Amino acid sequence: MNKVEHIGIAVSDIKIAGDIYEKLLNTTVYKTERVEQEGVETAFLQTGPNKIELLQATHEDSAIAKFIAKKGEGIHHIAFDVDDIEAEMQRLKQEGFVLLSDKPKLGADNKLVCFVHPKSANGVLVELCQSVDNR
Questions:
Q1: Is the dihedral of CA 95, 98, 101, 104 positive or negative?
Q2: 6: Cβ–Cβ under 8 A, 6 or more apart, which residues?
Q3: Residue 134 has pLDDT above 90, yes or no
Q4: Which pLDDT tens digit goes with each residue over 47-63?
Q5: Rg over CA atoms, the chain
Q6: What percent of the chain has pLDDT over 70?
Q7: Where are the beta strands (DSSP E) in the chain?
Q8: How many CB atoms lie within 10 A of CB 3?
Q9: I need a labelling partner for 81 at 20 to 30 A (CA). Which of 44, 67, 89, 133 fits?
Q10: 39 and 61 Cβ atoms separated by less than 8 Å
Q11: Are the C-beta atoms of 98 and 89 separated by less than 8 Å?
């Protein structure tokens, strides 16, 4: 794993949260994107090398809606940049980690993604990210 790619934050209202984080980080939302297969609207902010992804559910049965209903708004996941997501998935499986998918999926921000189950990562939802451009 190369670096922290971003921190994902579950929010109820992406516009309100975007305004708050723009003021907090003294930067602007540089990209918004809907990821239909995950039932989420995303907004990205960056300050220096650090990125924040805001996540708002687009329907009541999405993972983000369920997360907010159970835990409230807040940090949802931490994402790590990897060079070869399939090799990293295989390595983690061999180390005993439980992955939430067998193959990487296309996610927001032009990334291939895979999540590591929080039960196998000490309670933290971990996302692996590989830029589609790096394939």
A1: negative
A2: 44, 51, 52, 53, 79, 129
A3: no
A4: 999 999 999 999 999 99
A5: 14
A6: 99
A7: 3-10, 29-35, 40-47, 50-57, 74-81, 105-107, 111-116, 126-131
A8: 10
A9: 67
A10: yes
A11: no
pLDDT (0 to 100) of residue 135: 62
**Amino acid, res. 129:** C
User: How many angstroms separate the CA atoms of 118 and 91, rounded?
Assistant: 17
Residue 5 has pLDDT above 70, yes or no: yes
Task: Report how far apart the first and last C-alpha atoms of the chain are (Å, whole number).
Answer: 16
Q: CA dist 25 to 4, 29, 44, 88, 89, Å? A: 17, 10, 12, 31, 32
Q: Output the pTM of the full model.
A: 0.93
Tokens of residue 132, six digits: 């589609």
